[in-house]
Write a structure and sequence with these properties.
40% of the residues lie in helices and 22% in strands. The chain is built from 14 helices and 18 strands. The structure holds the ligand N[C@@H](CCSC[C@H]1O[C@@H](n2cnc3c(=O)[nH]cnc32)[C@H](O)[C@@H]1O)C(=O)O and zinc ion (ZN). It holds the Pfam family Amidohydro_1.
C-alpha cells in the first residue's frame, strides 16, 4: 500500500468541529485511512499542514468549465440577452481544441482554489473527459441539450447525444467520472424531447441535471403555457428524482420547495451568477429548513467571473442573509456544509467529509495570512475570509494534484498561454 500523510494541521470534521490531527491516506484505494493527533509518520509521502486547515476538497456543483474562454467576453446583461446575443454565437464557433484549452484553464483554476470535484454541463464532452483524466479531479459530466431554435432532426440528435454521452463515459478516468442526462433548462428544451428521453435516462439509471427557475422570465412562459409552476411541470415529466439536481432554484414558491423536499431533488445554489445576471435571490434558508439538499456552484466563468468556491461560499452567506432579511440566516456552518458535503451529496459523490473510509479529496488552507489572523473560528474563516490563493495543497482520490501551490498535473504557463491564444482567435472569428 502506498500512503500519504498530511501532518501538523487542524482538521475540519463532518460535525463542523476542528481538531489538531494528521490525516493518513491510502493512495492506492484513494481513501482516508486514519485521522489522529500523532500518527506514525512512516508514510511514503508527507505534506506539511502546519498553521493550516485541512478541509474536504470543495465540490463545485454546477459549472460550464470551458466557459473560462469567455471570461470577460460579455458582461452586464440579463440572462436571455447575454445567452442569445453573445454567448451562444461564440459557443457556436468553438472547436474541440477550444473546449480542451478552456477546460484545462478551468481545472487549473479550480485545483489552485482547492476544488476537487465539479459537475459540468457543456458540449464536446470527450474533450472535458480528457482534461479530467489528465488533471486528476473528480467530475459529474453531461452534454447540455438545447432544442429551441433547432429543427426537429438537430434537436433530436442533441438529446440523443446527451444520453449516449452519459452512457459512454460513466466510470471513466478510473471511476472518477460519473455522468448525467443534461437538458439545459425547462424553457430551452421542448416538452416532447423530455417526454421521449427522460424515461430512457431513467431506464439507463442516469441522473438528470438542469437549470431551473433561474429567472422570472423563465417561470412565466411555463405558467402561461402549461398552467403550473416550473417544478410542478418538471415533476409531471419525471424530472424530480432523488438523484437529480437542479441549478439555481431562485424563483421557487413554497409549494415547489415542498416538492423538492419530498422528491429528494437537490438544488445547486449559484449566488455570484444570480447576482451578476440580476436573476434574483434564492430562498436558501427556506430550502435548508424544508430539508432540501443544497450545494454550491460557480456556474460558468462568463457569469461569475471566476471559479473560486471560497468566493462562492462567502457570496452564499451574504446573499442568503439579504434574501431572508435576517443576519442569522445561512450561517457559516451551513455554508461550509454546502461547499463540501452538500454539493457532494447532490452530485451522488461520497466525498465532502474527512472520516475514515471516505474518498481522500482534500484541500489544505494556509492560515498564516493577514486576513486569517486571529483564529477564533476556522469555520467562520472558511465561509467569510479565506480565498482561493490561500490553498496550499490539493489532493483528489489520494493523489497530490497541487503541492505548495504547484500544480503537478498541468503545466501552468502552457495552459495560460494556450487559453489566451485560443480565446483571442475565437473572439476574432465570432460575429456579434
Ligand atoms: N448543446 C447546446 C449547448 C448547451 S451547454 C449548456 C449551456 O448553458 C449555458 N449557460 C451558462 N450559464 C448559464 C446560466 O446561468 N443559465 C443558463 N444557461 C447558462 C452555456 O453557455 C451553454 O450554452 C447547444 O447546442 O447550444
Ligand atoms: Zn449554468
Amino acid at each position: 500500500m502506498t500512503t500519504l500523510e498530511i501532518t501538523g494541521g487542524a482538521v475540519l470534521r463532518p460535525d463542523a468541529t476542528v481538531e489538531r490531527a494528521d490525516v493518513l491516506v491510502d493512495q492506492d484505494a484513494g481513501t482516508i485511512l486514519e485521522i489522529g493527533p500523532d500518527l506514525e509518520g512512516t508514510a511514503d509521502e508527507t505534506l506539511d499542514a502546519a498553521d493550516s486547515l485541512v478541509t474536504p476538497g470543495f465540490v463545485n456543483g454546477h459549472t460550464h468549465v470551458a466557459m473560462t474562454l469567455l471570461r470577460g467576453y460579455a458582461d452586464d446583461k440579463p440572462l436571455e440577452a447575454w445567452l442569445r446575443e453573445d454567448i451562444w454565437p461564440a459557443e457556436g464557433a468553438m472547436t474541440p481544441e477550444d473546449i480542451r484549452a478552456g477546460a484545462e484553464l478551468g481545472l487549473l483554476e479550480m485545483i489552485k482554489g482547492g476544488t476537487t470535484a465539479f459537475a459540468d454541463m457543456y458540449f464536446e464532452v470527450p474533450e472535458i473527459v480528457a482534461a479530467v483524466e489528465q488533471t486528476g479531479v473528480r467530475a459529474v459530466l453531461g452534454h447540455g441539450i438545447v432544442t429551441v431554435g433547432k429543427d426537429e432532426g438537430a434537436a433530436h440528435e442533441d438529446a440523443a447525444e446527451s444520453l449516449a454521452v452519459a452512457e459512454e463515459f460513466d466510470g471513466a478516468a478510473a471511476g472518477r467520472i460519473s455522468t448525467v442526462f443534461a437538458p439545459h433548462s425547462l424553457t430551452t428544451v421542448g416538452a416532447s424531447y423530455l417526454e421521449e428521453f427522460v424515461p430512457k435516462a431513467r431506464d439507463a439509471g442516469v441522473p438528470i441535471h438542469y437549470h431551473a427557475n433561474e429567472t422570472e422570465d423563465e417561470v412565466a412562459p411555463i405558467v402561461d403555457e402549461h398552467g403550473v409552476r416550473p417544478l410542478e411541470y418538471a415533476a409531471e415529466r419525471g424530472l424530480l428524482g432523488a438523484e437529480d439536481f437542479v441549478a439555481h432554484g431562485v424563483h421557487v414558491d413554497e409549494q415547489e420547495i415542498e416538492l423538492l423536499a419530498e422528491a429528494g431533488t437537490s438544488v445547486i445554489h449559484c449566488p455570484a451568477s444570480n447576482m451578476k445576471l440580476a436573476s434574483g435571490m434564492a430562498p436558501i434558508q427556506r430550502l435548508l429548513e424544508a430539508g432540501v439538499t443544497v450545494g454550491l456552484g460557480t456556474d460558468g466563468a462568463a457569469s461569475n467571473n471566476d471559479l473560486s468556491m471560497l468566493d462562492e461560499a462567502r457570496d452564499a452567506a451574504m446573499l442568503g442573509k439579504l434574501a431572508a432579511s435576517d443576519a442569522s440566516a445561512v450561517p457559516a456552518e451551513s455554508v461550509v456544509k454546502m461547499l463540501t458535503a452538500g454539493s457532494a451529496d447532490a452530485l451522488g459523490l461520497e466525498s465532502g467529509r474527512i472520516e475514515p473510509g471516505a474518498p481522500a479529496d482534500l484541500a489544505v488552507v494556509d492560515l498564516e495570512k493577514p486576513h486569517l489572523v486571529p483564529a477564533h473560528d476556522l469555520v467562520s474563516h472558511l465561509a467569510y475570509a479565506a480565498e482561493a490563493g490561500d490553498v496550499r495543497h490539493t489532493i483528489c482520490d489520494g493523489a497530490i494534484l497541487m503541492a505548495d501551490r504547484e500544480v503537478r498535473t498541468l503545466e501552468e504557463s502552457r495552459v495560460l498561454e494556450r487559453a489566451g491564444e485560443r480565446a483571442t482567435a475565437l473572439s476574432d472569428r465570432t460575429e456579434r
